[in-house]
């Protein structure tokens, strides 16, 4: 008698490639497995993977699933590090289980593959308290006047973060990136970067000039 049981489709078959990202995007090639992507971030070629490492699973149909960073990047206080190679078997098993569960849900959390390049800058920013009193530097930035559009090439997130750290210290830069501003349509710089990185960069430069002029 034929069985009424219908073989279950493995949701992982929807994945056709993985990609690893670091701050300078040194791994543009598609990869067959999560393990290969993880090994890219563990390699000597990776640039600041502890701060910027991302791994994305690409699905058939033009969708993608960013792998949660906590599965392969360890966070301890203000420091972070990619897992050691001797943990790879356990990490790969955990990621496989997470992907299978995520892709099995009817309305899984996926994004358009064309928009994927998540940023670990958000993790750094989450370490600060957005409700803490604003330093004088940030209050001055809130009251800043209009700035001319001097920048020709669009700056990257790395450029913006480096500029913010130079103008402020790292702790204040993290808080600054989470502070909303009326000149950014009430959004935080971290969010507005996706719309107009040049404008955010110019505001940082203007803030640096005002600090230098006392």
Please provide a written account of the structure.
The chain is an alpha+beta fold and 214 residues long. The chain folds into 2 domains: 11-118, no CATH class; 125-212, no CATH class. Helices cover 38% and strands 13% of the residues. Strands 1-2-3-6 form a 4-stranded antiparallel beta sheet, with helices on one face. Strand 2 (54-59) and strand 3 (63-66) form a beta hairpin. The N and C termini lie far apart (87 Å). This is Antitoxin Xre/MbcA/ParS-like toxin-binding domain-containing protein.
Number of strands: 6
Give me the side-by-side strand order of the main sheet. 1-2-3-6
Structural class: alpha+beta
The main β sheet shows up as: 4 strands, antiparallel
The proportion of residues in beta strands is 5-15%
Order of helices and strands: EHHEEEEHEHHHHHH
Amount of helix: 25-40%
**Radius of gyration over C-alpha positions, nearest whole angstrom:** 21 Å
Specify the number of helices: 9
Instruction: State the shape.
Output: elongated
Number of domains: 2
The poorly predicted ranges are: 146-152
Overall mean pLDDT stands at 77
Rounded to the nearest angstrom, the distance between the terminal CA atoms is 87 Å
Task: Give the secondary structure arrangement, pairings included.
Layout (H helix, E strand, L loop, with lengths): L14 E7 L12 H9 L6 H4 L1 E6 L3 E4 L6 E4 L2 E4 L5 H17 L6 E2 L8 H5 L10 H7 L14 H11 L2 H8 L11 H4 L4 H16 L2
Antiparallel strand pairs: 1-2, 2-3, 3-6, 4-5
Protein name: Antitoxin Xre/MbcA/ParS-like toxin-binding domain-containing protein
Organism: Vreelandella aquamarina
């Amino acid at each position: 008698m034929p069985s009424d049981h219908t073989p279950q489709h493995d949701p992982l078959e929807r994945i056709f490639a993985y990609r690893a990202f670091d701050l300078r995007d040194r791994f543009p090639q598609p990869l067959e497995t999560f393990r290969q992507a993880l090994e890219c971030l563990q390699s000597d070629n990776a640039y600041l993977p502890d701060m910027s490492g991302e791994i994305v699973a690409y699905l058939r149909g033009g969708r993608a699933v960013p792998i949660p960073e906590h599965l392969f990047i360890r966070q301890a206080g203000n420091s972070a590090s990619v897992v050691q190679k001797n943990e790879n078997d356990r990490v790969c098993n955990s990621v496989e289980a997470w992907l299978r569960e995520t892709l099995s849900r009817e309305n899984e959390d996926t994004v358009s593959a064309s928009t994927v390049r998540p940023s670990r800058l958000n993790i750094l920013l989450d370490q600060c308290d957005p409700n803490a009193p604003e330093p004088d530097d940030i209050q001055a930035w809130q009251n800043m006047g209009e700035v001319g559009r001097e920048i020709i090439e669009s700056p990257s997130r790395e450029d913006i973060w480096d500029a913010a750290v130079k103008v402020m210290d790292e702790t204040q830069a993290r808080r600054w990136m989470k502070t909303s501003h009326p000149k950014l349509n009430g959004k935080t710089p971290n969010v507005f970067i996706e719309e107009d990185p040049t404008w955010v960069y110019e505001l940082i430069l203007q803030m640096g000039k005002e600090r230098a002029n006392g």
